[in-house]
UniProtKB/TrEMBL annotation:
It comes from Actinokineospora spheciospongiae. SUPFAM superfamilies: Homeodomain-like (SSF46689). It holds the Pfam family TetR_N. Keywords: DNA-binding. PROSITE patterns: HTH_TETR_2. GO terms for molecular function: DNA binding. This is Transcriptional regulator, TetR family. Residues 17-77 form the HTH tetR-type domain. Transmembrane segments: none annotated.
């Protein structure tokens, strides 16, 4: 593979793709260290070793970088999820028990991918703004493909969900994003919870909260006996 720093300006499609991947990989590494809100174009440019104007030749904005990364990370997560569902769901159990197992696998898997949940939390209110029609169209098409894969995995374990699978999967991802915003409270809030333990009922632990929400949603779309 070409070293993205061995040429001053990408002139071929191969070189452009190398630069795009370098920017995405650098952004991904940043998300392992900091929340989405802390990722800036200036810091990304510094880490990738390009001027900010150079980064903007490959991605029209910070949000466009993060949307592409979100699509990539979702696809990678789904590849892991497929094996986790195979191991974690017993096909011989009744539908409600299989639904509980699917919820357990999904909540455990999503909770282990905090950066992905953070991206979903920022998607509607932040990341889908400051992007062009074409950028958001590309993102939505990739999202639709990923949603179809996730729905197929759920239906394989729980065919009873039928046509509700896509809506359930979308809901699960959006709920994971919403809940993730509450799982890393700032120091001031932690101090409040410590001084008044009764208020700590508002503190959210991602995995159990996700498991409850996903179980409720999934069981709710099963056909009535």
């Amino acid at each position: 593979m070409l070293d993205p720093m061995t040429f001053q300006r990408a002139r071929t499609e191969e070189q452009r793709e190398v630069r795009r991947r370098a920017i995405l990989e650098t952004t991904s590494a940043m998300l392992d260290e900091m929340p989405v809100a802390a990722v800036t174009l200036n810091e990304l440019s510094r880490r990738v070793g390009l001027a900010k104007t150079a980064v903007l030749r490959y991605f029209e904005s910070r949000e466009a970088v993060l949307l592409d990364l979100m699509d990539d990370r979702t696809a990678s997560w789904l590849a892991e999820l497929e094996q986790e569902l195979v191991r974690g769901v017993d096909p011989d159990l009744p539908a409600v028990r299989r639904a509980e197992q699917v919820a357990d696998v999904l909540s455990r898997s999503l909770a282990a991918h905090t950066a992905l949940c953070d991206l979903y939390g920022a998607q509607g209110g932040v990341l889908e703004h400051n992007v062009s029609v074409e950028a958001v169209r590309r993102h939505k098409r990739a999202s639709l493909d990923n949603l179809a894969v996730m729905a197929r995995l759920v239906r394989r374990c729980l065919p009873e969900v039928g046509d509700h699978a896509e809506q359930f999967c979308l809901t699960a991802l959006l709920v994971a994003g919403a809940l993730s915003a509450y799982t890393s409270p700032p120091p001031s809030l932690l101090a409040v919870y410590e001084s008044e333990p009764a208020l700590a009922v508002h503190r959210v632990e991602l995995r159990p909260a996700l498991r409850l929400a996903i179980t409720t949603s999934l069981v709710g779309v099963l056909p009535r006996p």
